[in-house]
Amino acid sequence: MKLKQIFLIVAISAVSAVSSVWIYGKITRKQPNFVQSENGNIPANYAGFFDNATGAGEPIDFTKAANAAVPAVVHIKTKIPAKRISNQLPRSRGNSMEDWFNQFFDFGPQIQPEQRASGSGVIISEDGYIITNNHVISDGGEGVADEITVTLNNKKTYKARVIGKDPSSDIAVLKIDGKGFPFLLYGNSDNVKLGQWVLAIGYPLTLETTVTAGIVSAKGRNIGINQRQSKTPIEAFIQTDAAVNQGNSGGALITTDGQLVGINSAIYAPTGTYAGYSFAIPVNLVKKIVNDLIKYGDVKRPYLGVWVAEDKIDAGDGAHIGNVAKDGAAAAIGLKPGDVITKINDATITSWTELQATVSSYNAGDKINITYKRNGKEYTATATLTAKSGTFDEIASNTVGEKLGADLVTIDKKQAMQYEVEGGVLVKKIKQGGPFSKTRMQDGFIITSVNGTEITNIDELSQAIRSLKGETIQLEGFYPGYDGIYRYPLNIGEE
Length: 495
Prior knowledge:
By secondary structure, the chain is α+β, with helices and mostly antiparallel strands. It contains eleven helices and 29 strands.
């Protein structure tokens, strides 16, 4: 064999080897690593995939947003004065000596000591309007702090006054005197996405201004916390994993470009401190509440005139309608029980709480486009929101609360199971001057019967009261956490 032929063969072999190595390398770089399962059937691979060719992602810079927002977030300190409270409480469980003793001795009114609290707030105008939580400046009832101080990030302190408060949404507006204050701009909470980075700014625990970061982990959350303050709670929280603790209430939830998208309000805290989940009121709801409080001193709520289907409250595919007010906005456009609302204008509706919060962000008289499903088909109609809820059977029954002078609510199935009863009506708050205030009844009493007739909800209570016109009524029930059945005679007079 000639030398030239030998060189040619060697060259061809070398090129082939290099090409094979190059091709193998390209293939193996592009293919994920599969691991055979033990049964030999289904391959599995790691979820993470790193492409070294693209390099690591750029780190997110929070400094600009934090530096812009921190001056507009303030420290709020409040003082609620001492007040007299009734001693007519039910007897505690398992203390027979105390039960016997209290039957014969009356020690008169007791004094609830002065309460001091600390929270956060957000300046929203250069002339000193501040958003905070209602629970920061009130005792959860009618009591409001008589002394409120606001300290800015620059350590300057001001006296603040309450412009208005809304227990249903847990929002309050304060005012400090002055000009040229730093303030935050509203963002759009409807545009907030799951997984989006956000910052929580406030004054937690005993610390000064604190900034924490997290992601949006859920939207439209209903955790039932505003039921402590209102019989008509509105909740559709933005859930994040940004660290929030006591003292953060009323502080800012902002995007990485420094826009306000929520007011931090609550935490999931089985131990009393942050456990990984915090909740903020979406700013689109906040804006409406704040504007009304500044303009009117209270909230002018708009109504669509629909009632939730109780068995599908958490369905997750929209707001399922259980009842429609015959003279409400929904009835005017032909909505019916069984319809499922999926969108209000451009906002997607996945739950009843999202529907409540979205409608509450508008004003009475506003026109909204409603997308809904009926029998598998999708429809769109334009409704004009009203200033009244309209007439439902459920809502009409709530007039009994006005007649009796109390805020009433039907206990839910979980509570009924917990208390081992079929149902009942919770007396959330007794109003001064009403029939209930003239008895020894206390807030928290659960009514289970009227003149020996069992009642399980507000409608049954209403019917029982109506059927006993002018008669002396005996209400029977219990207090959660206390032994025994309690009875209260009541005379509400002729109708």
